[in-house]
């Protein structure tokens, strides 16, 4: 079985796009067109079925009419695959590539993989570099023991139950919505058409990471059978002290490590590990919550057991929907250095309701809770370490009204949930009120004005927290502020809010500059 080749080396410093011969080129064009047409028909099939049914056709005839194209597609596609195969096997460049690929699979040495890395090709053929079950230390065993990582057997049983249950319950509609357009609306980056359009940009971004940043690409196998595409940039040998820390980046719902938030910590001098969601670019699978968690787990294990970073030297940086996997990892690997959530949210339901008809409220809520439950706020409260939230003041995606209404930004709710969980006595009544007032400031000047109007003494707040930590401080929640005056609680609430939230005057998709990449605050 042949694989598509995109780029190949022409010297030790240069590379060029692979030049297929005429037979292969024309056959590939036909296959690409067929794939695009199939994708369009696949995504539009629910509308087509609805239209035909409204026209009076029987549902069975609708399915047959739409399924006929699929039946014709398979033999014609197999026929078209024959011609590019001939073209590739008569091309010396391809023969050289396939020899190196087979050697990498057969021997698996670093030298063979280094030669293979000089080519850019269909990632499905890349040999697996790390498996989820390779780690045998007690650290991973503890994760399994406490149930924070589902075993493969449990996942298979759960998936089987999820497939059967909707057929015999009243929640069939939720299952259909989640697994048709719901998942694709939530993770548009998993759609073939978008990936096809972005492919040249992704290839350029990947080449830049490998050539300019000495990136090391690897394939990780998860416990549910998916394969995750990763890229690691090692800065430990540089003179910059931050290079000793590893930043693991979790991208957004249409983000790829090739062109995503990975560049921010990379420009700041950190060692960086990027990965693509299941179903994104080189990663296989479907981006459902459990698959996302499984992917994040194998990435963490790879960082610890293969790349050699201690958990306390690992920092998680997530943008937007990547906050789900980042908070899951922080909850499951509590010894990590810290967590940075950029333009993230606390709960998916309010954001889903914003873009769907009001009459669908019940269906949307049920669908999210049962199949697409990205409960970032709940997971964040399980983590005991340092946290920094970056709020975009002009965010148009995670606001529930309009971008200018900063109080509808769900990052506010994420902050309030975190502080209320960790410091319940401080945040009682007055604390929540003053933090909401501070969050409502539309400019840095207004924010500073509110902060100073309550005469917050930073040194006093810091000394109170340090004293409590030295005497009674264990795991959160803390009872600090229990015997404090309302004025003292207000000061502490504002102090803690400013330490845990960083405003960035930008829209949702504006890249965070490296100078704005700050480590989370800790006592």
Automatic annotation (TrEMBL):
It is an enzyme of class 3 (hydrolase). It catalyses: Hydrolyzes glycerol monoesters of long-chain fatty acids. It is found in: Membrane. Its main location: membrane. Residues 246-380 form the AB hydrolase-1 domain. GO terms for cellular component: endomembrane system; membrane. PANTHER family: ALPHA/BETA HYDROLASE DOMAIN-CONTAINING PROTEIN (PTHR12277), PHOSPHATIDYLSERINE LIPASE ABHD16A (PTHR12277:SF54). This is Phosphatidylserine lipase ABHD16A. It holds the Pfam family Abhydrolase_1. The keyword Lipid metabolism applies. It comes from Varanus komodoensis (Komodo dragon). Gene3D superfamilies: alpha/beta hydrolase (3.40.50.1820). One of its GO terms (molecular function) is monoacylglycerol lipase activity. GO terms for biological process: monoacylglycerol catabolic process; phosphatidylserine catabolic process. Its EC number is 3.1.1.23. It comes from the Eukaryota. Residues 7-122 form the Phosphatidylserine Lipase ABHD16 N-terminal domain. InterPro entries: AB_hydrolase_1, AB_hydrolase_fold, ABHD16_N. Phosphatidylserine (PS) lipase that mediates the hydrolysis of phosphatidylserine to generate lysophosphatidylserine (LPS). LPS constitutes a class of signaling lipids that regulates immunological and neurological processes. Has no activity towards diacylglycerol, triacylglycerol or lysophosphatidylserine lipase. Also has monoacylglycerol lipase activity, with preference for 1-(9Z,12Z-octadecadienoyl)-glycerol (1-LG) and 2-glyceryl-15-deoxy-Delta(12,14)-prostaglandin J2 (15d-PGJ(2)-G). The chain crosses the membrane at residues 30-53. It is a multi-pass membrane protein. Belongs to the AB hydrolase superfamily. ABHD16 family. Keywords: Hydrolase, Lipid metabolism, Membrane, Transmembrane, Transmembrane helix.
